Amino acid sequence: MGANVYPVFLRLEGRRVLVVGGGTVAAGKLPALLDAGAQVTVVAPRIADTLRRPGVTLVERVFRPDDVDGAFWVIAAATPEVNREVARVLEGQSRFVNAVDDPASASAYTGGVVHRAGLTIGISTGGDAPALAGLIREALEAVLPHDLDAWLELARQAKRQWRERAVPMARRRPLLLQALNDLYRERDAPARGVS
């Protein structure tokens, strides 16, 4: 059974992120880190060409414990032995590590992620079934509304108004649901010939 986890989203813009490992798995993590604005350093004895990108610092050698110094977030995407060493170093510093496909060495899991129109949804199986998290991600992408950007804009405007009027949190979800229903009623009215 998967670990009980506490979901969280990290703001990595301008922060140093260490990726230990230089292969395909590490390369798969790179696009999301760069999209988040992270300053990525990769440490590995051999680094694949797919990791050689502008703005990525490459250190071609074996992992050393001091590599984690100054890193806000660490991803271990190396061999199980190296992942365990990274986890041991960070555990001693009370810091988190994501050990890719190595739940025993991980103190944090990244899971499946859906990004659309400013919305981010994370899916985790606590490290037990990453392929299932991926399938659920694909299913969510298929069923999310195509006009989700309109939903988010409506929610942003409503939030500003609720704060100005000091609307209690408990009343906000029902109000937002009503506003979304109204949005579709207004859009569907011309199609039904209603003026």
What's the topology here?
Blueprint (H helix, E strand, L loop, with lengths): L15 E5 L3 H12 L3 E6 L12 E4 L12 E4 L3 H12 L5 E3 L12 E5 L2 E5 L6 H14 L4 H18 L3 H23 L4
Parallel strand pairs: 1-2, 1-4, 2-3, 4-5
Antiparallel strand pairs: 6-7
Summarize, please.
By secondary structure, the protein is of the alpha/beta class. The chain is built from five helices and seven strands.
Describe the structure.
By secondary structure, the protein is an alpha/beta fold. It is built from five helices and seven strands; from the N terminus they run E-H-E-E-E-H-E-E-E-H-H-H. The chain has helices at 24-35, 80-91, 130-143, 148-165, 169-191, and strands at 16-20, 39-44, 57-60, 73-76, 97-99, 112-116, 119-123. The strands form two sheets. The protein has a five-stranded parallel beta sheet with strand order 3-2-1-4-5, sandwiched between helices. It has a two-stranded antiparallel ribbon with strand order 6-7. Helix 4 (148-165) packs across helix 5. It is elongated and about 65 Å long. The chain starts with 15 loop residues before the first strand and ends with a helix. 24% of the residues are buried.
